[in-house]
Write a structure and sequence with these properties.
Blueprint: H1 8-15, H2 32-35, H3 52-67, H4 71-82, H5 88-97, H6 100-107, H7 113-121, E1 125-127, E2 130-131, E3 143-147, H8 155-162, E4 173-176, E5 181-184, H9 200-207
Antiparallel strand pairs: 1-2, 1-3, 3-5, 4-5
Length: 209
């Protein structure tokens, strides 16, 4: 399955803000964006005024990189959001939030979505007591997501769960920390998303041009 394999810290620098793609490192002094808060490349420190097209392109790229999705897959999510009756931008974010790897991250079993994706791909996650190894698996209201019993002693899971109390409470997720499980209750509420940096209307305008 195709995925980005390059340095993720460079993505934060390119988008001009922290995307929190490396977990705890993003909060430390080692954060690449903290040390070099300008785009990568020899012209990164130059003053560049973005056009209206470029602003909308950067917003789309930012959302893709936050959720760890490549372009063709992101286009499919957008097409699905267009077919729905609500606001296209909010429906797009709703589609992204129902991905299994995203929910594993939101529940606190992984510090980043990339780490959550790895847990899913390696067969550590079950949905309604059935093992699922597809990161893009779409969850529905009432689905129960859990760590397999043999996977509950993983060190990265213990580290992630130790910080789960610091995360914002999200109404459509219910965590059973002791049982290493959670329930996706749905639907997604845009106001509760802790990605306020995503301006979804710009993404809609980019694809509608």
């Amino acid at each position: 399955m195709a995925r980005y394999l390059g340095p993720v810290c460079k993505l934060c620098r390119r988008e001009g803000m922290k995307l929190f793609l490396k977990g705890e490192r993003c909060y430390s002094e080692k954060c690449a964006y903290t040390r070099r808060p300008y785009p990568p490349g020899q012209h990164g420190q130059g003053r560049i005024k973005l056009s209206e097209y470029a602003v909308r392109l950067r917003e789309k790229q930012k959302a893709r990189r936050i959720y760890g999705i490549l372009e063709k897959q992101f286009q499919r999510y957008y097409a699905n959001a267009v077919r729905r009756k609500g606001g296209t931008g909010e429906d797009l974010l709703g589609c992204l939030e129902t991905r299994l790897d995203n929910v594993v991250h939101r529940l606190g079993f992984a510090t980043t979505r990339r780490e959550a994706r790895q847990l899913v791909r390696h067969g550590h996650i079950t949905v309604n007591a059935r093992r699922v190894d597809i990161p893009s698996y779409v969850l529905r209201g009432g689905d129960r997501v859990a760590l397999r019993e043999a996977s509950r002693s993983l060190s990265q899971v213990a580290v992630a769960l130790s910080h789960v109390d610091k995360r914002a409470v999200i109404s459509w997720l219910e965590l059973d920390k002791a049982g290493f499980a959670g329930v996706f209750k749905g639907p997604v509420v845009r106001e509760e998303l802790n990605e306020p940096m995503i301006r979804e209307q710009y993404i809609v305008e980019y694809y509608s041009r």
